[in-house]
């Protein structure tokens, strides 16, 4: 976490000009991958309305899987972190010992490794970078929020040192701002499909066992009874009257239950470290070419904002 934060800061500082213009962009371009493609692969392949377009998705996946395999093979031949090397050797050894035997799903050991890498890449990188992208956009569009972010950093940190996770309990407004960014951005308005394991009645509707359902997270995140004026950016929703951080059970960007995101703890840590250090180190404002970017969303695997440019100047 901290090494990545330091690398981010140094990459901005390397520019010799006093003012560094940065084009913020996402790790992956997913415009072509509509959320509908995530629902049920087997079902969609058999539908004529999706059959001609489904290769767009599978081709993108194949390209990523080939990249992961190449990276794994290169790292097996080099000295890298011990835990990573042990993991790669384990998969490689099992592949040799089983003579390419496949599991019940028809996957070999190395294909399983490809899938693990794919899960980590898509679930870990796309979502975190996208949330930071939205956070930056929302904060810069709301001057009062921006001023309060800088005020808290100056009061609680008071220097340009690297902010660590030990500072997190002292930066309540920044935590609230990140929470509100996650709520309003609502990266995954529809979650991954699930199957009902038993007959159930919800709001008077009978849903039989084995029915495939798609949880709609936005129905909670934008519920006006829980979040008044839900389309307004208001970090104060997550603060108590005394300024402490309020726990709101309905904030569910990582979903809920047994199948909620396994990386929630890591993601929250990363969001805090990158967001707080970015604003602690730099004065940030929109570039003059686009002083008021749109908050219109592009639909993909996650909901992303349209690209925008900012000016970043190191704080004294």
Descriptors:
9 strands; mainly alpha; two-stranded antiparallel sheet; single chain; 10 helices; 316 residues
What this model shows, in words?
InterPro entries: Cyt_P450 (IPR001128), Cyt_P450_CS (IPR017972), Cyt_P450_E_grp-I (IPR002401), Cyt_P450_sf (IPR036396), Cytochrome_P450_fam2 (IPR050182). With 316 residues, the chain is mainly α. The chain has one domain (39-281): Cytochrome p450. The chain has ten helices and nine strands. The chain has helices at 2-13, 41-45, 48-51, 54-76, 82-97, 109-141, 143-156, 172-185, 218-221, 264-281; strands at 19-24, 194-195, 200-202, 205-207, 212-213, 282-286, 297-298, 304-305, 308-314. The strands form four sheets. Strands 1-9-6 form a three-stranded antiparallel sheet. The protein has a two-stranded antiparallel sheet with strand order 2-5. Strand 3 (200-202) and strand 4 form a beta hairpin. The longest helix has 33 residues, at 109-141. Mean pLDDT is 76; it is low at 16-51.
Itemize the secondary structure elements and their pairings.
Layout: H1 2-13, E1 19-24, H2 41-45, H3 48-51, H4 54-76, H5 82-97, H6 109-141, H7 143-156, H8 172-185, E2 194-195, E3 200-202, E4 205-207, E5 212-213, H9 218-221, H10 264-281, E6 282-286, E7 297-298, E8 304-305, E9 308-314
Antiparallel strand pairs: 1-9, 2-5, 3-4, 6-9, 7-8
Keywords: Heme, Iron, Metal-binding, Monooxygenase, Oxidoreductase
Binding site for heme: 261
Family: Belongs to the cytochrome P450 family.
């Amino acid at each position: 976490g901290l090494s990545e934060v330091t690398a981010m800061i140094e990459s901005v500082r390397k520019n010799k000009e006093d003012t560094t213009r940065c084009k913020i962009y996402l790790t992956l371009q997913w415009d072509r991958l509509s959320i509908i493609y995530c629902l049920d692969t087997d079902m969609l392949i058999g539908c004529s309305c999706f059959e001609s377009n489904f290769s767009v998705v599978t081709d993108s996946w194949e390209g990523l899987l080939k990249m992961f395999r190449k990276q794994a093979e290169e790292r097996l031949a080099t000295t890298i972190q011990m835990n990573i090397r042990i993991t790669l050797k384990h998969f490689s050894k099992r592949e040799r010992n089983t003579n390419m035997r496949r599991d019940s799903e028809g996957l070999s050991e190395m294909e399983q490794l490809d899938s693990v890498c794919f899960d980590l890449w898509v679930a870990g990188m796309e979502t975190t970078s996208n949330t930071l992208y939205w956070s930056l956009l929302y904060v810069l569009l709301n001057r009062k929020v921006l001023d309060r972010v800088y005020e808290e950093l100056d009061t609680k940190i008071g220097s340009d040192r690297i902010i660590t996770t030990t500072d997190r309990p002292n930066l309540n407004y920044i935590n609230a701002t990140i929470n509100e960014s996650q709520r309003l951005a609502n990266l995954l308005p529809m979650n991954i499909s699930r199957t009902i394991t038993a007959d159930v009645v919800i709001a008077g509707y009978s849903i039989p066992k084995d029915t495939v359902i798609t949880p709609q997270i936005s129905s909670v995140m934008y519920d006006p009874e829980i979040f008044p004026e839900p389309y307004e950016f208001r970090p104060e929703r997550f603060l108590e009257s005394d300024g402490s951080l309020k726990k709101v059970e309905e904030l569910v960007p990582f979903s809920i239950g047994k199948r909620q995101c396994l990386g929630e703890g890591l993601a929250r840590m990363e969001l805090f470290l990158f967001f707080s250090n970015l604003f602690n180190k730099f004065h940030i404002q929109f570039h003059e070419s686009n002083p008021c970017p749109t908050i219109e969303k592009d639909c993909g695997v996650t909901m992303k904002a349209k690209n925008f440019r900012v000016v970043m100047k190191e704080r004294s």
